[in-house]
Amino acid sequence: MTKTNGGFEPVFCTVVPPHVLDKLAQHEDPALADPARRTLERDAFERTHRRLTTVVGAPSVAAPLGAEAGKPHRTLYDAKHRTELPGKKVRAEGSEPGKDATVNRAYAGLGATFELYLKAYERDSIDGGGLPLDATVHYDRDYNNAFWNGEQMVFGDGDGEIFLDFTIPIDVIGHELTHGVTQYTANLTYFGQPGALNESMSDVFGSLIKQYTLGQTAAEADWLIGAGLLAPRVTGKALRSMKEPGTAYDDDVLGKDPQPATMDDYVRTGRDNGGVHINSGIPNHAFYIAATTLGGHAWERAGQIWYDVLTGGELKKDALFTDFATLTVAAAKARYQEGEELQAVLKAWEQVGVRTA
User: Fold this and answer.
1) Closest Cα to residue 216, out of 305, 116, 109?
2) Catalytic residue list
3) At what angle do helices 340-352 and 281-294 cross, to 10 degrees?
4) How far apart are CA 95 and CA 7, in angstroms?
5) What residues are paired with 92 via a beta bridge?
6) What is the pTM (predicted TM-score) of this model?
7) Residue 330 belongs to what H/E stretch?
8) Per-residue pLDDT tens for 47-60?
9) pLDDT tens-digit profile of 19-34?
10) Closest to 196 measured CA to CA, from 76, 32, 321, 98
11) 314 close to 249: Cβ distance less than 8 angstroms
12) What is the number of other CB atoms lying within 10 angstroms of the CB of residue 202?
């Protein structure tokens, strides 16, 4: 069984928040409600399965014999619209692209995630030790989500009404795989503020993977999570916005994006594991401010500070926003002394209303 900082946490992480699917499940149109209900039921099953796996112990995953350090080891599977994992093997590391665009996008997204962590932070795969990257596509029928289940990535095709194919946005792939990085490092508890930090880490590095792949500066990036995922009928541009939390969508079916940008609007709720997908807007916005204040490539200085905190060993599983913010200040000082990096980090947390000790 995989061990992480403070032991193993049974975390099942999806990119579409439960509150979005809840809203869809209540719609009078069965074409919208039925896929959402099935997705919620499947997520509940996978969440329970994830918890049981951690009780009995998951099989350890090792790199294949002869595998080269510092190189990705990707395997793609096709669930063929069923739910048994991993499904039929359809592409191995180094093989040529096939006719299935979904398989090709997933393969490329896994590679892009691997590359950012290796090139920017000298991290060899999700666990830092060359962990093979497995992913399953075409999961279930009209499945409106993508998830990391602690061992592999899984992508639905969407219902075509609200959500399109979940391999389309590369930041969704990076987001989910970063849940794995968090699992192997700080292992943030998936509830309340530590859970919102867990989600924010995935949004931050998901966005950085997209920016790195496109060669964008912080000023050029759109800072959207899941752009291209929403179907044409939806009034919205993405699942979340790091630049302007609360503005990603405002739709007659989905409702309005509920993310706050500052602590003044912090949402207290028992749903969504204490609002992990909602309040993540606050640390997301702090990162956006720090990165755009510094300019240049966001993965270099702002990203390095966030990565240092995530992997540094001092971030506790139950860390609150103030704990994380304080560690980013310390990390900025340790790496960059009293320079503009420190000032950018201080400014970012001040603007979102999070104290730094």
Assistant:
1) 116
2) 176, 277
3) 150
4) 36
5) 75
6) 0.94
7) helix 321-336
8) 887 776 544 444 45
9) 999 999 999 999 999 9
10) 321
11) no
12) 26
